[in-house]
Amino acid sequence: MPVVPLPQRLPLPRLLPFALLLPLATACGGGAAGAQDSKTVTVTVGYQSKTINTVTAGTLLRSLGYFEEELAARGKKDGLTYKVKWQDYATGAPITAQMTAGKIDIGSMGDFPLLINAARGRQLGQPTRLVSVTGYNLRGGLNTVVTAPGSPLRSLADLRGKKVSTSVGSAADGTLVRALKQAGIDPERGIEKLNQQPSVGASALAGGNVDALSQFVAWPGQLAYQGKAKALYDGADLNLPTFHGVTVREKFAKERAGVLDDFLKAQRRATDSLRNRPVAAAETVAKETGLPAEVVYLYNGAHGISTFDPALRPELIAALEKDVPILKAAKLVGDVDVDSFIDPAPLRRAARTASYPKADAAKAELWLKGRATTRTFDSPKELLKAAKGAEVRAAYVPDALTGTLWFANRAVWVADGSDLRAFVTPAHAKTYIERHAGARVVSYADAVRRAS
User: Fold this and answer.
1) Where are the beta strands (DSSP E) in 310-374?
2) Which domain holds residue 400?
3) Do you know which SUPFAM superfamilies this protein is assigned to (predicted)?
4) Which of the two ends of the chain, N or C, has the fewest CB atoms closer than 10 A to its terminal CB?
């Protein structure tokens, strides 16, 4: 299906889209991508250090130095000197701006921004291609709607008529739009939507200026960990995959195919490192970003919300196609030919194997202070027994309905006879209680007491 060109001037929607919050003028900064003299080639990589679902193509990869190692080996063969210029951004929007200006070669971003990347690239004569995935969640658990800790809101239906902060054009906004529709609420008229960058929205929630915040990894987990928010809606309720991936300028991919292969080899090595040493990876990312390691591990840990695998899985691509209508409705893109945007060939050349096995169901996990490893448990109750009296750095439990991992002391606990179950949201707990006579909500402290 051919790509329908976007108009030169996009009609402005009711809210300035998140994808355009940072003007294209930012593309003027930095050197030319793929810059080179006769003996030196500079590769410019755009990444999002605090969007920790991209670390295998960004923060962690940079700290490990694997890309530089691969390029050094290439240089010994062809006599060239390769340099990597890393550029850190808060969102995917400025990465797209830089790529369409020819100033970034390789970038990583979420699924919704990737589609905007594809559309803007075609429109501006700098087509891009999706070449790998960083991390994903097959149910959509990477996006969460949160409220203030003392909020009376108990379910998504309670958002009718309320102020909600999100980032239009992001996967978090896509989750909000879909979830509201399922709840019978018009996402445009049923709520007052504020289009804000994540940090601004977090401040608005803390200041009582909005009733809820819909955001992507790692904002919901960070706010919950800090006691500044509680989960209202688990994106996994949509049961629709969400992911982050790597995009490359098509021209660069053709002219420097070997360099792109080196990047994907390095990404694979970084993925191996994260999967084999998840605690060490969380500590590294925390050091580089200033995020709490406990929050990083919630998403990137051994049983974290995100699964890291570069493979372009069919179910992820199918979900990407379902995202296009959401962005079209927001007037952020026209038709996007997803098939022509995806290029699996570089990954096939670079990867040793097609993909990792799919992740097993999440388990309860305990991280004790001073330990470089964690312990897993077959049930939340067993974790609580082990945590009592111990010096706990972090304890994680999977939601009994969706499997989404959450902090044990921030979860909603339900006692069902002698059994104890944890849930990310009050709505999940309510659903379980309605199906199990005698079950009731208990506090975290009471859950620990009962487990012992």
Assistant:
1) 364-368
2) 364-451
3) NosL/MerB-like (SSF160387), Periplasmic binding protein-like II (SSF53850)
4) N
